[in-house]
Amino acid sequence: MWIAKTKSELRVRIDAALRPVILVPSMGALHEGHASLILRARQHAGADGMVIVSIFVNPIQFDSVGDFTAYPRSVEADLSICENHGADGVFIPDNSEMYLADRSVTVSENSLTKHLCGATRSGHFDGVCTVVLKLFLLTGCDAAVFGEKDFQQLAVIRRMARDLDLRTSIIPHPTMREADGLAMSSRNARLNTEQRADAPCIHRALQVAAGECDAASMLRTACEMLDQSPYASIDYVSLVDAETLSPTESLARPAVLACAVFYGDVRLIDHIVVGG
Ligand code: PAF
After folding, report:
1. Which of 46, 50, 135, 144 is the most buried (most CB within 10 A)?
2. How many angstroms separate the alpha carbon of residue 120 from the centre of ligand 1?
3. What is the pLDDT of residues 207-219, one digit of tens each?
4. What residue spans define the domains of the chain?
5. CATH architecture, domain defined by 2-173
6. Closest CA to 173 of 85, 79, 56, 238
7. 151 burial class (0-12, 13-18, 19+ CB within 10 angstroms)?
């Protein structure tokens, strides 16, 4: 497996690649969820195509320096996971390789980002769109695999690909969960023992709430269950239309019950599809 730290090293690999080139964008601290994205990319690439994993903790998508600094980093383990799951190469640039000090162009999505994480994490999705577009352009990838866990991110990237006529197909991949239901996330590594034991209540709350028959009861049940947790503090619990990601009170169309919850300074997200 090759490793490229610079854009020019990456370029040499891309120029020699057979198609399709499939990208798995990541910020590292890889876990089984990422491993399944890489396997999925391998399936799409076939034996001849190229699977590239990018590992870059993208500073411009963090809304606080503290969160960026605390984001888990485990490069050696990440490289083993990439190699063991069929990646052909890893692009692992540093900040100065990705961003010039006087950079002045940002990609913004202005509709799907109005609510949910977009409302509470200022500038987050601009940072995501900007880096993802750069990674698509740098790798020239035919397709890229994204986890459904970050469902707002997936929707925003699909919209960016549609509206900017990108030639990269977006491949969604189901959320991977721990045995106790907690959605796999790099941030789980930052939970202490008590928080980790409590965190499956997020998925449980969403599952129980999804059994309610109207929107108001769903929101109330999810909030009540999360409020009972001694460690969780709610950032938001929302019911949104699955297509527009705008708040809805109707279950006639597919909707998403989504939440973000803080455990100390660790912010976890999860969602469940309802209605329709
Ligand atoms: O989902 C992530 O890990 C990041 O948001 C992404 C897509 C790699 C962009 O930095």
Report:
1. 144
2. 17
3. 999 999 999 999 9
4. 2-173, 186-269
5. 3-Layer(aba) Sandwich (3.40)
6. 85
7. buried
pLDDT of res. 7? 98
**Most informative mutation of 55, 68, 82, 150 for ligand 1 (most atoms within 8 A of CB):** 150
Contacts of 111 (CB under 8 A, 6+ apart): 159, 244, 245
Ligand 1 binding pocket (C-beta < 6 A) is 25-27, 58, 61, 128, 131-132, 150, 153
Q: At what angle do helices 7-15 and 124-139 cross, to 10 degrees?
A: 50
pTM of the model: 0.98
**CATH code of domain 186-269:** 3.30.1300.10
Nearest-CA residue for ligand 1 atom 1 is: 26
**Catalytic status, residue 34:** yes
Low-confidence ranges of the chain (pLDDT < 70): none
Residue 204's contacts (CB-CB under 8 Å, 6 or more residues apart) are 181, 225
